[in-house]
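Quick entry, no commentary yet.
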Amino acid sequence: MSAPVKTEPFTHILCWVDGSDEACRAAERAAHLAQNMGADLTFVAVGKELGFDAGFADYAQIEGVSGPMPPVTQGDVDACLQQAIAISAKIGVPDAKRMVTSGDAAAAICSIARSSGTDLVVIRRYKSNLVERLLGASVADTLSDGCGFSVLSVG
């Protein structure tokens, strides 16, 4: 017996942005989908956790901020996130959210999607070679099979 098909519009779309041209195009598609469906939209980037930094700790103490140093993303990821937010606002999704987290991409996306009530995850299409296909599941496979979300892979 096959799983039931979702017939109502998606209400919350999460789009993973990794800084690639394909991810930036996926972000634009996600924005158009959110606008057409009246859905909430969140863009997420997965950065590197730097751990303890004495300079940041001193700055945080001076500013009265506590907590660990935030994850760091590469410049192209930040540019893609900014572009995604700007495109969203331009086409009529002015309240799109932006999140940066760290860790394994699939696990981080799955966790954010579960906690935010996401019902569609949009990611860029990955071109994998034979070795990659034999060694393990892709992020899309992990999200759709392991986390149970609808996944739109945009190329």
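second:
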Amino acid sequence: MTAAELTASRTGALRGRVRAPGDKSISHRALILGALATGETRIEGLLEGEDVLRTADAMRAFGATVEQLGDGRWRVVGEGGFSEPADVVDCGNSGTGVRLIMGAAAGFAISATFTGDESLRGRPMRRVLRPLGEMGATWTASAGDRLPLTLRGGGLRHIAYELPEPSAQVKSAVLLAGLHAEGGAEVIEPEATRDHTERMLRAFGARVEVTEQGHGRRIGLPGGQALTGTAVQVPGDPSSAAFPLVAALITPGSEVTVEGVLLNPLRTGLLETLREMGADLTFSNLREAGGEQVGDVTARHSALRGVTVPPERAPSMIDEYPILGVAAAFAEGPTVMRGLAELRVKESDRIALMAAGLAACGVGVEEEPEGLTVVGAARANHGVAGGARVTTHGDHRIAMSHLILGLASERPVAVDQPGMIATSFPGFVELMRGLGGAIGDEVRQAV
């Protein structure tokens, strides 16, 4: 029995202009809101990764017409609500997809059973189920708050829900449920999280009221609102753009431009942190598309230095900490990252896996319950050793991050289960090869 791997080897300068795949968060929301709306929604630039395709299938299961018109071009026709699915709704590996869909489905008097792959079935759902239950939805599961579970919705009442911890997924689930709750819904968040749901609800014709409260916000969605189909332009995903940009920063002689990147200020925490580390990043062609700030980002090889990342910045870059760990490995001095409890319950325990992978590649790292400190190796004649085979536990971001590390390490770095990369970044290997990156297939005899 064989197991496919990918191996990244030290390469020369990376150069070129590329376009990141469509933003995953916005892609999920475009499909879900299109299905909830009345009429036709046309989507351009949809991410066609496995996670988003599962959401497209789910919207069909709930009664919407969903069809692909071309590369990244999709059409959704909704009837203004969800009907009961005839079969189990399988969300694959997508935590975002299942949590948002459960919120949307809770607003209707239907029963739906949700499941996912092995990784998703191991991830807790109570953070979403708690507020949905307070609104009047009920659920049953055979394994605590884990999938598979059956949700029964309808007859929801108003809620003013204060998030116990920052979570755009929980906030979005409550707002989507609030569309069909008596009196709507309010969410109070202690720290501002990505606001794509609020922006897109407005694009579909809903009234959303946002009030700043210290570092956080109060979001109100009045009840009794109907959505109308619209056109959605999906910008490039900053979480995906981070991989070629960091690769350029750590590889001598490199200059890479990623075009059409989403620059929503609640999603640019990584870019802000990299600039604090001394990264040569420039922004051009700034514009607004679909209610979002978009632009081209150019990264040039830079001498990076370690920094302490403010914990309150975590919501704006929660998916980018693995690749930040790679940048930190090539910096001078320690980079301290805290406030990362959510990383323990992502597709994998990302704190543990990044610590293990970096350590195996010769990087100094200290794991904390809710944080990570990476001691950079940028000293005279002291680079990152590499030379490891990294276990990813099927986590796409862990895999891509270590492949980027391998492009600038002394010895090659291999990752297992590379097929999972397609969940968020189809074409990742081809894109990096096009820039000059040495990433190759390798098949080894499984132990």
